[in-house]
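Hi W.,

Here's what went into the run:
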Amino acid sequence: MLDLIKHFFIALKQVFTGSRNYYIWIAFLGFWILLGLGTYMIQLKEGLIVTAMRDQVSWGFYLSNFTFLVGVAAAGVLLVIPAYIYNFKPIKEIVLFGEMLAITAISMCIMFIMADIGRPDRVWHLIPFIGTMNFPASLLAWDVLVLNGYLFLNLAVVLYVLYRIAHNKDYSMAVVRPLVIMSIPWAISIHTVTAFLYNGLPARPFWNASILAPRFLASAFAAGPAIMILLFQIIRKISPLEIDNKAINKIAELIAYALGFNLFLFGAEMFKEFYSGTVHMAPLQYMYFGLHGHNRLVPWMWMAFIFNLIAFALFLSTRARENPVTLNLACSLVIVGVYVEKGMGLVIPGFIPGALGEIYEYSPTNHELLIAIGIWALGALLYTLMLKFVIPVYTGELRFSDGMRVSAKVVSGQEEPALPEQGAGGMVPDQGS
Amino acid sequence: MTKYGKNTVRETKVSRRDLLKGAALSAAAAALPAADAKASVWEAFFQRHFQELNAREMEKVISRLEMEYAEKYGKEIKISTTKPLPGVLFGYGLDISRCIGCRRCVYACVEENNQSRDPQIHWITVLRFKKGDKWVSDMESADKYYNPDKVPEPGYFYMPTQCQQCENPPCVKVCPTQATWSEDDGIVVVDYNWCIGCRYCMAACPYGARHFNWMKPGLPAEEINTKTHYLGNRPRYSGVVEKCTFCIQRTRNEKGPYPACVEICPVGARKFGNLLDPKSEIRYCIENKRIFRLKEDLNTHPKFFYFFAT
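Here's what came out:
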């Protein structure tokens, strides 16, 4: 117990000491977090009337961000597949960072849900055994279970591995492997269940299309890893951590497949709706051409489509993938493209036209934007703090066990920290081969 | 209970929550021995699902709520918890050929059921269609904001909509906390103290029948209907969903009055009765008129029947 407290303070100290840029970054995030928190207090007091949501469009920007972030949580697993199924070493070394991104994304998902519900004080009604969770009938109940399960699964792996490394001990592959293998179907399930949440509503023909779940997966496996690629390059730049170019190239290649598949599914959906030309094409018409003079989403949807198209062309070319400039451009394009397509472009058209044919054009209010920015900042802070602690543990600069602990002050590059054979670069030597 | 069986809250959960609530309440009681109002905050927080309350707990909840309402609105509001009458399944008929689009039903409903006046919440929406336009399966040409000097207007007809009290209600299926359910007399109700305000039911409802309290309901004390039902027209809270209950506070009586909308309709376009009673008016309409139900393709099986008397 005493040890735990001591370790906690070591971690705390590590997280609170940093360079000037680190403090500036934290202060920047802190500013937006406080602003978001203040706005959330206003929302709690006034009610959801401060948002642009109304009875006609009863879900909006919060749920859009939630949906996108469920997709981001997949990034981790796309690393796990090549690392453990195909035994691809360069990626194996960075799996932990993908899992931390998943933890961050799921935490943000939970925050967006808390921002969205009218009675956050009653959220305990959802908890199994304490509340009256409507399982298995409600897909929202399923989502609560799978999202939290995924969160704990990733937390378990990250905490276990870090704890062992920080103590200079080997971690057992017999413990880690089943957990990471389990996280593969689990990651697919969080996407599928979130897609089914929308998909299972015959009242909303736009969502009630079987193509929804496959499209969710395809777009998630494109945007999530794109975020990872950008993050890896930042991590590599600001820390002594080595990340092999081979890992990044491999991830970029996987994005190309996912994005191609996403575009194909998009085409299939467009064909079905526009060629058959039934009343169910109204939401798509609203998105891409405007409906009865209402066209607020049109420029956004075309922008997203063009971004995805350009990104696909870039990801397809090996040369563009290997050039950092075009790679980062392609990653940014696909992130923005999918954010629009799977966020507002998925949630809003479900309600347009409404159940009684009404068209209510939604665009988020400043309150919604500030709260959302606050949550993104909080997510960025969470990931930053995790990195701040994990990277030195990973590189061997920070150890809990007294004898081996090298001061965290070691300046990177000046001196190779004494890496124990095991901990170097994090993930284990392969015991399977 | 309905054949879908998702509405019953299992008894086994009671003991656990009893414990939790008991612990919390005694903690609260110990901390605030004399402060009634503050103790009530905790009691409100830990109030359990309506269907899990036993008679004694129900009594306590009702008296606390009545106290809260009295404090808030400065007048006595009676909350009944009348159970469904045996052998009753409510059905509703609406004669489209008679409706003149006057919206008296909309406002009679607002008054009877204590809806928010500002912002306005209407449980009934009257849609206006141009004769000859698409209507039943494509409502894009519906106008719900029509505002002429006089109704009916030549060249138009009207179709009021409200909760269709589906036998297979998609809203009940999706609710993550079982805060909404079908009662034995077929009325779909909401426990305003259990709803978490996720609005999944609003996305699931094909009839736009569910409404959300986007802010504290603006309900002037002098306009309150003080005769209320727990599952019906008692004043609502910010952040919860509400809907038509066939005037549960009126209609759960042997010789109960009709719902307010039926009573007010100046042209007799609205019919209401017991579907299980072969001699009821609603059964007569179903057996003798050409009826249809909205969005039948969704298999929601509404108990709200549109027909043409002439």
